[in-house]
Design goal:
- The complex is a heterodimer of chains A (about 475) and B (about 750).
- With about 475 residues, chain A is an alpha+beta fold.
- Chain A has 16 helices and 20 strands.
- Chain A has 3 domains: about 1-175, Ubiquitin-like (UB roll) (Roll), CATH 3.10.20; about 195-350, Uridine Diphospho-n-acetylenolpyruvylglucosamine Reductase, domain 3 (2-Layer Sandwich); about 370-460, Enolase-like, domain 1, CATH 3.30.390.
- In chain B, the strands form 6 sheets. Chain B has an 8-stranded mixed β-sheet, sandwiched between helices.
- Chain B is of the alpha+beta class and about 750 residues long.
- In chain B, helix 18 packs parallel to helix 19 (about 730-745).
Chain lengths: ~475, ~750
């Protein structure tokens, strides 16, 4: 297989309208590193972990028709991952000294003070400006992945609200054409196979290699913890891992679909999914992060697991021989440990249907948006005809070494009316079953209090 | 006026939005052969360095050399005043303190080298909390004491007494651009340091001291900063010194840039405080006397902790008359980052204490807090507890009344109580709080500024001044002032990067005084030039020749009239005795008030700011877009400090919240849904450049209204009694406060207030 042999290939991609051939670099080199070394210093490093958005650039990605601009954190894109992509940085926007309308809006009304975060805001707003189907003003939620320390956001909000429809310029014209398709690619320490069999082959040949999807977690490890990966295998171009099927008996979600792609593919997604999605990181992260990646890291505070546990999801795992299914509650085997065996990759996530009647996702954190949860909870209820609970699923993140279900609380509710007494029984069961730890996000006592209190909130918000 | 007072966008706005505006690290590619510096970090909060062997580090590929104390030709210390910040310490005083540095061809190489340094430590016991420091009597300085009258006697004679204790958290600056310096040997044997610093002159002095050379051989340039907020007032110096020392040793350019995690681990923050107070008052809530003890957590070195503490002591009054006061302040010496300047400079902590006390008194008396606040306002003729007449004291009441009216405070107060009566799990709260903030450096000598204005023969202008641009819009205002004075278009005035070889011996751009000082100095320079050019222009006009600016300038040149001028300004009328804390430390006060309304979720302690109304006194705004940005941005930054920004050090003294994922800044979610900000009208400040007022710091303290609104909402979960709430008011702290409020059986128990309330 061609991709299996490490070669010192150039990393070629479209950058601001021209094709660039970046020489092979250490695999932890980020797109941001490359841009800045190239003199494109508009993108800044503010945190190196995808929180502040100062490094935001846009990628041209496939849309429903043609293409769309998607902001991404260039500090969390390994340079090799950019191969074959099409990237725009802030330097591409102004033409002949004339500011782009987005830039004009940000500049004229006090949208910048120190200016360091501004290129990132501009790029997020640029992508929003050209969002297909946008009617009316730009939505400020599009900039939820950008932090500003100076302005307090009001002038940036006003800049967004002042923007009318995108004019028929070259940037809009670009969206009529297809986005680049990703081919297989390999360079030193990095391989991007274009089929599942190749991917599994590479993994079999080098069991120490690390699977990478959106890199929104792995790149944080390389940037901040100095972790180095000898070899990365990207699943970004593996079609089998990028499927989506909303079937009669279940929803299958490809492990390598970005959260943003899932949102656009799952047209019949229930309300709770969208509520959950809004609380999941930020737009640039959602444009890269995958469900497979979020589950494979097995973080006890990951946002996907509580919801998927409450939905009784199954993890479908691809090995060389076959695809096997593991219930999600059996997938997490310990702190940051999963049932994945060497040589396996997560294929997809299967959510059984019908979906539960009542589902709510809650996230307790210091900050409402783009924060890591102290406690996350997802509660799902099905009812019998007599208003009794037929089935309950109470799932938590942040209260144990793995995301867990509180089965004793479920048992305390199932078969009974969903009344205050039932909620109190569930709370008591949770209090007995859980013993969370305290850390810089929250004390153990607060976590335990929240695990109970959220049941009360759920009861108040979903009376029966 | 043509320019001053008009809404001009930030002078660099176009550069900001295009990415064309450069910051120190953006210059990297302009320095071929630049070396990257990385520190060897101590893994203890307190330890003795027994041995530091860098030979293995030197042997790593790509490592060029290392830096230790023996490499410094001068004094290897960056402590500005007390010389208490060794660059290569023998005793580690905080977790991750650099003990040596490695210079590499690449950052990877330098990091790899540092990882191979062999350092032996003897771990020593560390002091990590204010409590612990008090127990060990670990202080940086003798206590600071300020007295008015006999506070003890006044309290004893009072009909009622209220006591309280309060922990106030610190705050990470989280300037988006982290600390950065880039040093190179210049063409004539000097050192040029590009540095993200609020105080280029001090950076220059420290670099010269470390290199053992004259200050005239060091030039520091600050192009602009990606935010600073006080965090680069003194804390930029060490990194500049390391870069310069590296360049001096290797004769190659050297870059020091702290990535976020290091910046947060190594640099100082807003001082955490612990406060204890007893107030004597009457049944109407009128203060009769107050005793307060303030303990600040100064961290490992002295830094600016003394003036920060003094400003806290000065601002313990906020807008209220303290008829008798005894305030004692202590700077705790702990094994943590060296806490430093941060927008407000101690003032916010002082104000939180008095606002905490007044809310407590009001709830103890069963009175609305805003009524008790009003009753204690300064009136015309009053003086502060440090003996300064409260200039324009009537503005406090004027702003208060206007804001109550414009925010519909009274009707909303009633409406909120009604809403709360019908809700058990969600409560609203509302509060109005004032701000009075003293403007000037409290160290009188810093209240001076210089400028250098150059006119070229084509009529274009360069302005040099001592202030630095960190986003606050100083250069924008200076440009407006210069264009106004000279009568030229804005576009012909270029504000030059701040350099120590243009204007010497400058003060830090700090204390909100950047425009007051530098603007006045620039105005002085421009007015001199204008005076020189006026007769030339008149003569041209009399001869019927074109007398535009460019023609006038050319004619002046031919007449051998100098086309450059130095400007200078010193703030008049300051007199302050640092030993007694008495006198007139401030030129004037900036005033404001805010009304905030919040909604709190009783299940989680989570909350939202539903509406905020701000009315702030910026004098006659010289640049409304800029000033509005300072008011709004300062408020939100203050909301962050008081609500979600939480610094957590673990038992080892390591900062556990050392990145954007663990330390949460205000985001879009913290922008109040309804945000109404106005400037006070008819507010020109005589004796200040173009009648404007300093605006950088004061609005931050308007955010105290959010904290007080949260307390109001928490009280509504109970029966309206006392609310103990340490700062920051994270959802967790709010949740526990709600639980306490729900558990309290009765309210307005005067004897409970008189006895003081024990901390949980």
């Amino acid at each position: 297989m061609a991709v299996a042999s490490p070669v010192a290939a150039n990393i070629s991609f479209r950058l601001n309208g021209e094709t660039v051939h970046a020489p092979s670099a250490p695999s932890h080199t980020t797109l941001l590193d490359y841009l800045r070394a190239r003199g494109l210093t508009g993108a800044k490093e503010g945190c190196a972990e995808g929180e502040c958005g100062a490094c935001t650039v846009v990628m041209v990605r496939p849309g429903e028709a043609g293409s769309v601009y998607k902001p991404v954190n260039s500090c969390l894109v390994f340079l090799a991952q950019a191969a074959g992509h099409e990237v725009l940085t802030v330097e591409a926007l102004a033409h002949d000294g004339e500011l782009h309308p987005v830039q004009r809006a940000m500049a004229s009304g006090g949208g910048s003070q120190c200016g360091y975060c501004t290129p990132g805001f501009v790029m997020s707003l640029f992508a929003e400006h050209y969002r297909p189907g946008r009617n009316g003003a730009c939505e400020t939620a599009a900039m939820a992945g950008n932090l500003c320390r100076c302005t307090g956001y009001r002038p940036i909000r006003d800049a967004a609200l002042s923007l009318g429809p995108a004019s028929a310029d070259d940037f809009r014209a670009r969206l009529a054409r297809p986005a680049p398709t990703l081919d297989e690619f390999a360079c030193n320490g990095f391989a991007r196979p274009a089929s599942l069999s190749e991917c599994l082959g590479l993994l079999a040949a080098d069991p120490g290699a690390r699977i990478v999807a959106g890199a929104t977690d792995l790149a944080v490890d390389t940037n901040l913890k100095g972790v180095r990966f000898r070899r990365l295998i990207s699943v970004e171009a593996v079609p089998e891992l990028r499927g989506f099927d909303d079937a009669a008996a279940h929803v299958d979600i490809g492990a390598a679909l970005s959260l943003d792609e899932i949102a656009s593919r799952w047209t019949a997604a229930p309300t709770f999914f969208h509520e959950w999605l809004e609380l999941f990181a930020s737009p640039p992260i959602r444009n890269r992060a995958t469900l497979g990646g979020n589950l494979a890291t097995a973080s006890p505070i990951g946002d996907a697991a509580p919801m998927l546990l409450a939905l009784d999801a199954e993890i479908r795992i691809a090995g060389t021989a076959s695809i096997r299914g593991v219930p999600l509650h059996a997938f997490f085997t310990g702190y940051r440990k999963t049932a994945l065996q060497p040589g396996e990759v997560i294929h997809s996530i299967r959510i059984p249907k019908p979906l539960p009647e009542r589902v709510r996702f809650y996230k307790v954190a210091k900050r409402r948006l783009d924060d890591i949860s102290s406690v996350a909870a997802c509660f799902a209820l099905d009812f019998e005809r007599a208003s009794r609970v037929a089935k309950a699923r109470f799932a938590y993140g942040g209260v144990a070494a793995t995301p867990i279900r509180a089965t004793t609380a479920e048992d305390a509710v199932a078969g009974f009316p969903w009344d205050a007494a039932a909620a109190e029984r569930a709370q008591a069961a949770v209090a007995r079953a859980l013993s969370p730890i305290g850390d810089h996000r929250a004390s153990a006592a607060y976590r335990l209090a929240m695990a109970q209190s959220l049941i009360g909130k759920f009861h108040e918000e979903t009376p029966r | 006026m043509k320019f001053v007072g008009n809404p001009h966008p930030h002078e660099s706005a176009e550069g900001h939005v295009t990415g064309g505006a450069l910051y120190t690290d953006d210059l990297l590619e302009r320095f071929p052969g630049v070396l990257h510096a990385w520190p060897v970090l101590a893994p203890h909060a307190h330890a003795r360095v027994l041995e530091c062997d860098l030979s293995a580090a030197c042997a790593r590929p790509g490592v060029v050399t290392t830096l230790n104390a023996a490499d410094a030709p001068g004094e290897a210390d960056s402590g500005a005043n007390r010389h208490d910040e060794p660059l290569f310490p023998k005793e580690v005083l905080y977790h991750q303190q650099p003990v040596a540095w490695v210079l590499g061809e690449t950052l990877d190489a330098a990091q790899d080298g540092a990882a191979h340094a062999r350092v032996l430590y003897e771990k020593l016991p560390a002091i990590l909390t204010i409590d612990h420091a008090i127990r060990e009597s670990s202080f940086h300085s003798a206590p600071a004491r300020l007295h008015r009258g006999d506070a003890r006697a006044a309290i004893d004679a009072s009909p009622l007494r209220t006591s309280g204790e309060l922990a106030i958290g610190g705050q990470e600056h989280f300037y988006l651009e982290t600390q950065c310096a880039l040093a190179a040997i210049d063409e004539s044997g000097g050192v040029l340091v590009h540095c993200s610093t609020q105080h280029p002159t001090e950076t220059q002095a420290i670099v010269a001291r470390v290199l053992g050379i004259g200050e005239n051989r060091v030039t520091v340039e600050c192009l602009r900063m990606g935010g600073a907020f006080g965090g680069k007032e003194v804390q930029a110096n060490a990194w500049a010194a390391i870069a310069a020392l590296g360049a001096w040793k290797t004769r190659r350019p050297v870059r020091v840039r702290l990535p976020r995690a290091l910046d947060m681990a190594l640099t100082g923050k807003r001082h955490p405080f612990f406060a204890r107070y007893t107030a004597g008052h009457d049944e109407r809530g009128k203060l009769l006397g107050i005793e307060a003890e303030l303990y600040s957590d100064g961290g490992w070195s002295l830094d600016l902790s003394e003036p920060v503490l003094w400003r806290a002591i000065f601002h313990l009054d906020n807008a209220y008359l303290l008829p008798a006061a005894a305030v004692t302040g202590y700077i705790c010496r702990t094994h943590k980052t060296s806490q430093t300047a941060f927008r407000g400079f101690g003032g916010p902590q002082g104000m939180v204490v008095i606002e905490d006390a007044l809310d407590r008194i009001a709830r103890a008396l069963g009175l609305p807090p805003h009524v008790v606040r009003e009753r204690n306002f300064y009136r015309e003729g009053d003086s502060t507890h440090y003996g300064m007449a409260v200039k324009d004291a009537s503005r406090i009441t004027r702003i208060w009344d206007e804001l109550r009216e414009s925010s519909s405070f009274d009707t909303r107060r009633i409406a909120i109580d009604e809403i709360n009566a019908g809700e058990s799990n969600r409560k609203r709260g509302i509060a109005i709080t004032p701000v009075k903030f003293g403007i000037s450096f409290t160290a009188t000598m810093f209240n001076q500024a210089g400028a250098l204005a150059l006119i070229y023969r084509d009529g274009t202008v360069q302005i040099n001044h001592g202030g630095t641009e960190m986003g606050q819009g100083l250069h924008t205002k200076i440009r407006q002032i210069a264009a106004e004075s000279l009568g030229v278009p804005l576009e012909t005035v270029r504000i030059m990067p701040t350099r120590t070889d243009k204007v010497p011996n400058t003060s830090a751009t700090a204390a909100s005084a950047g425009t007051d000082l530098n603007g006045a100095a620039v105005l002085d320079a421009c007015e001199q030039l204008k005076a020189r050019l006026a007769p030339v222009a008149a003569a041209l006009a009399a001869e019927g020749r074109p007398a535009g600016f460019a023609q006038t300038v050319e004619a002046a040149y031919r007449q051998r009239i100098p086309l450059f001028a130095q400007g200078y300004y010193r703030t008049p009328g300051l007199s302050y005795d640092a030993r007694t804390g008495q006198g007139k430390p401030f030129h004037y006060f900036a005033y404001g008030a805010a009304v905030s309304e919040v909604e709190v979720d009783g299940f989680t302690g989570d909350y939202r700011v539903l509406r905020a109304d701000l009315l702030h006194d910026v004098g006659e705004s010289s640049s409304p877009i800029i000033d509005m940005g300072q008011v709004e941005g300062g408020f939100i930054q203050g909301v962050g400090w008081l609500t979600l920004e939480e610094l957590v050090w673990n038992d080892e003294g390591r900062l556990a919240t050392n990145g954007a994922s663990t330390y949460k800044l205000p985001s879009w979610a913290e922008l109040p849904e309804d945000f109404r900000v106005k400037f006070l009208t008819r507010a020109a400040e005589p004796g200040v450049v173009f009648g404007s007022k300093a605006v950088g710091e004061p609005p931050l303290m308007l955010a105290i209204s959010v904290r007080e609104a949260l307390r109001d909402a928490i009280a509504a979960f109970g029966k309206g009694g006392l609310v103990e709430l340490d700062s920051p008011a994270t959802p967790e702290r709010v949740y526990w406060a709600i639980e306490r409020a729900r558990a309290v059986p009765s309210t307005s128990v005067l004897n409970e207030a008189a006895a003081g309330v024990a901390r949980p």
